[in-house]
Amino acid sequence: QSVVTQPPSVSGAPGQRVTISCTGSSSNIGAGYDVHWYQQIPGTAPKLLIYGNSNRPSGVPDRFSGSKSGTSASLAITGLQAEDEADYYCQSYDSSLSGWVFGGGTKLTVL
Amino acid sequence: EVQLVESGGDLVQPGRSLRLSCAASGFTFDNYAMHWVRQAPGKGLEWVSGISWNSANIGYADSVKGRFTISRDNAKNSLYLQMNSLRTEDTALYYCVKGVSGSYFSWFDPWGQGSLVTVSS
């Protein structure tokens, strides 16, 4: 049971917009620690998607965006494409645990 | 190009020990924090341990504290994870991951391809 919660799955048709939530607490996201997002295509290693709540590394399409408010964060994907089908994980630091925590992951299905 | 190559994964019995290694190349290893993250079959990501560039900051997940030890050899561009008293629940793919700065508190990028550890009798 992760201390940071994500929906197990989301889905959308090609071209649509989906959002993935990441809910934490006062010891992680709510404490001001940044949220980072990773994309894991099945059978491959995770890849950094968003860092520092809302920043995209070079090479990540601007269809991907992140935001943070209070004890939660969210990842938005617009103009869904088949290649976006993957697992998405949020990450933050937790001061109570003195360590990094990942959300449980969200499987995105492109219909 | 940054490369992180894990090795040492194996099938071991519960209670035994194993040492994972990660050979790093393509960047100045001693400038960056490093971490181990694991993923049990069909499950999500779990941070295991991290170490700052100079080994001054080290942390462990509660699930491995007291059993696992992270270390690094900056002269050999290598990261290690000594795993003792292994349990069946330690079965996972173990990723070697680079921090984006020397600080233990920086995010992770990139990830290695992983080394499989199976704990079973």
Rounded to an integer in angstroms, the radius of gyration calculated over CA atoms of chain A is 13 Å
What's the total number of strands of chain B? 11
Low-confidence stretches of chain B: none
Judged by helices, strands and strand pairing, the structural class of chain B is: mainly beta
Give the N-to-C terminal Cα separation of chain A. Answer: 28 Å
Distance between the termini of chain B: 40 Å
In terms of quaternary structure, the protein is: heterodimer
* Residues in helix, % of chain A: under 10%
Q: Estimate what percentage of residues of chain B fall within beta strands.
A: over 45%
| Mean pLDDT across all amino acids of chain B | 97
Average pLDDT confidence of chain A is 97
Q: What spatial form of chain A do the alpha-carbon principal axes imply?
A: globular
| SSE run of chain B | EEEEEEEEEEE
Largest sheet of chain B: 7 strands, mixed
Query: What Rg of chain B, in angstroms, do the CA atoms define?
Result: 13 Å
Note the total helix count of chain B.
Answer: 0
Describe the sheet with the most strands of chain A.
6 strands, mixed
Compressed to H and E, one letter per element, the order of chain A equals EEEEEEEEE
Question: What can you see in these coordinates?
Answer:
- The complex is a heterodimer of chains A (111) and B (121).
- Chain A has 111 residues and is an all-beta fold.
- Chain A contains no helices and 9 strands.
- Helix content of chain A is 0%, strand content 44%.
- In chain A, β7 and β8 form a beta hairpin.
- The radius of gyration of chain A is 13 Å and the shape is globular.
- Chain A starts with 8 loop residues before the first strand and ends with a strand.
- The mean pLDDT of chain A is 97.
- Chain B is mainly β and 121 residues long.
- Chain B is 0% helix and 50% strand.
- The A-B interface holds A 2, 34, 36, 38, 40, 45-48, 51-52, 57, 87, 89, 91, 93, 97-105 and B 35, 37, 44-47, 50, 59-62, 95, 100, 105, 107-114.
